[in-house]
Specification:
Helices cover about 25% and strands about 35% of the residues. By secondary structure, the protein is α/β, with parallel strands linked by helices. Strands 1-4-3-2 form a 4-stranded mixed beta sheet. Strands 5-8-7-6 form a 4-stranded mixed beta sheet, covered by helices on one side. It starts with 5 loop residues before the first strand and ends with a strand.
């Protein structure tokens, strides 16, 4: 069975992260202010916000785990736009919500149009459009 059902992001401030992702248009399962974990509906895969320290404990149990938030860890997330102009709109919206634009949208070698932003917790997101 080859599919990804859930992507969990460890976040420093779950309420700020929820506001950020809702601002980008992601839809929540639960809007209660004290939700310990937040899930967003997507087409096929769910996006989960999990408090970073608790996620590290969930993985490592009682063993201390070093949390490193510096630099690029080799993972990006991506969202596909329906048209080129939507890439620009999403990037502008992300910036207005506090994201750092790390690569302005440009036409790229694979024939599409894409840019990258870094969210409130340092995760890199590509926003892309391609005709095919």
């Amino acid at each position: 069975m080859n599919r990804i059902n859930l992507i969990a992001l460890g976040v420093l401030n779950i309420e700020k992260a929820r506001t950020f992702y809702k601002g980008l248009g992601f839809q929540c399962y639960d809007d209660s202010p004290d939700a310990p974990i937040i899930f967003f509906n997507n087409q096929g895969t769910k996006l989960e916000l999990f408090p970073l320290e608790q996620l590290a404990t969930d993985i490592a149990g009682d063993e201390p785990m070093k949390i490193n938030r510096e630099g690029f860890n080799g993972i990006t997330l991506a969202m596909n736009a329906k048209k080129k102009e939507e890439v620009d709109e999403i990037m502008e919206r992300a910036c207005s919500l506090g994201a750092e634009i790390v690569k302005e949208p440009v036409f790229v070698s694979w024939g599409g149009y894409s840019g990258y932003f870094r969210d409130l917790d340092g995760y890199y997101w590509e926003v892309a459009y391609a005709d095919t």
